[in-house]
Each structure stands twice: as C-alpha cells, then as structure tokens.
C-alpha cells in the first residue's frame, strides 16, 4: 500500500475502534510494522483535522495511546448522544452523580439514591467504571481511566469530567440537585483531606 492508503487505513481504525489504541495495537491490527511510520501517519491525520478546524481531533491520551474523538468544546453539547455501556437507568443516574461529585463518599450517594445504590455501585465497580477505596467508615468513589476512555475524555481528570457532567446532572436530575443544595449543600462537594 502507499501513503494515502495507509493513512486512510489508520484513520479508519481510529474511527471504528471508539477507544484509544496504542501503536503496537495498530501495528498488529493493520499489518504495518514500523511504529515510527505509524506515528507519522497519525500526526498527518491529526494535522489534517486541525487544519480544517474540524469538531473531531486525533490526540495522544493515557500515556502512549491515540484516539479519534470529539473536541471538548463540542462534546458537552453531544454527550447525551454518546453510546453507553449496557446500564439500567438507575445505574446511569448513580454513575452520573459519582462522576459529578467525585471524589464522593459512598454514604452520600446512598443517601441521595437510596439503598439500591449499593447494587449500582457494585456493578459499576465490576465494570471498571468507578473505583472504591476505604475512607473512614465508608468508601470514597470516583471514575476510572476506563470510564474516561468509554466516555471520550482525554484523561481521567475529575475536574474535566465534573464540568462535562454538570449540565447533564443539573438538567436530568434536578430532584437530586435540590437535595444537594439543601441542608447538606455546604459539605457535599468538599474533598476529604488525607
């Protein structure tokens, strides 16, 4: 194959994967042996998208992987259209709250969502979308790199994720926001100190 065909093949792979891919994964999947050549192809693709001021970008994420994704300034407006893992409505609601409030105590999520949140949290942990670490007499919850990858974030940065979920949580879950802004409003978003 020539340069144009190779570049098109790499672009197609980044598009259909829907997740970050390493140079080694691309090399194996596409049969292109030179990792340097692959990296140059990705740089060419990224430059073309940047040059035409597309809403799509190709960026390096999670250390050594590349992903084709919607730019942050557009992703917030289309996040509700993104494919989701096979989660029930209650699990999605719990996940959105954890993403928005992270790091958040499990006890606060249960207070807001009820006892069914324990099962939601268990499933979300099993799917690798959130972590739970011991904290005082409860657990501290937050999103994982797998969550960031699935939902198109360049990295698992809680501040970026919180901002993206702010509109979703406020629009879809106004009942829970009212609880948050009620008598516990001052303490809900405090980050525990170590």
Q: What do these coordinates show?
A:
The protein has helices at 3-17, 23-30, 35-51, 72-78, 89-101, 106-113, 116-126, 145-150, 158-172, 174-180; strands at residues 21-22, 56-61, 65-70, 104-105, 130-135, 138-143. The chain is an alpha+beta fold. It has a 3-stranded antiparallel sheet with strand order 1-3-2. Mean pLDDT is 82; it is low at 183-194. A hairpin with a 3-residue loop joins strand 2 and strand 3 (65-70). The termini are far apart. It contains 10 helices and 6 strands, in the order αβααββααβααββααα.
Number of helices: 10
**Amount of helix:** 55-70%
* Beta strand count: 6
* First-to-last CA distance: 56 Å
Mean pLDDT: 82
Described by strand count, sense and barrel closure, the largest sheet is: 3 strands, antiparallel
Please supply descriptive tags for the structure shown above.
single chain, 14% strand, 194 residues, three-stranded antiparallel beta sheet, 6 strands, elongated, alpha+beta, 10 helices
Summary of the model, kept short:
55% of the residues lie in helices and 14% in strands. The chain is of the alpha+beta class. α1 crosses α3 and α5 (89-101) packs across α9.
Could you outline the blueprint of secondary structure elements for this entry?
Elements: H1 3-17, E1 21-22, H2 23-30, H3 35-51, E2 56-61, E3 65-70, H4 72-78, H5 89-101, E4 104-105, H6 106-113, H7 116-126, E5 130-135, E6 138-143, H8 145-150, H9 158-172, H10 174-180
Antiparallel strand pairs: 1-3, 2-3, 4-6, 5-6
Helix pairs in contact: 1-3, 5-7, 5-9, 6-7
């Amino acid at each position: 194959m020539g340069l144009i065909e190779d570049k098109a093949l790499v672009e197609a792979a980044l598009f259909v994967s829907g997740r970050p891919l390493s140079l080694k994964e691309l090399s194996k999947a596409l049969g292109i042996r030179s990792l340097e050549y692959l990296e140059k192809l990705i740089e060419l693709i990224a430059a073309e998208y940047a040059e035409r001021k597309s809403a799509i970008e190709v960026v390096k994420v999670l250390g050594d992987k590349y992903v084709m994704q919607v730019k942050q300034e557009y992703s917030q407006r289309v996040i509700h259209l993104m494919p989701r893992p096979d989660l029930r409505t209650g699990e999605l609601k719990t996940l959105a709250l954890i993403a928005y409030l992270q790091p958040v105590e499990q006890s606060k999520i249960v207070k807001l969502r009820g006892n069914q949140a324990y099962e939601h949290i268990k499933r979300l942990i099993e799917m690798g979308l959130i972590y739970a670490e011991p904290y005082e007499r409860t657990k501290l919850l937050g999103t994982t790199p797998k969550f960031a990858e699935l939902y198109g974030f360049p990295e698992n940065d809680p501040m970026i994720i919180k901002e993206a979920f702010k509109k979703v949580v406020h629009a879809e879950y106004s009942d829970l926001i009212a609880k948050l802004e009620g008598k516990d409003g001052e303490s809900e978003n405090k980050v525990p100190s170590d």
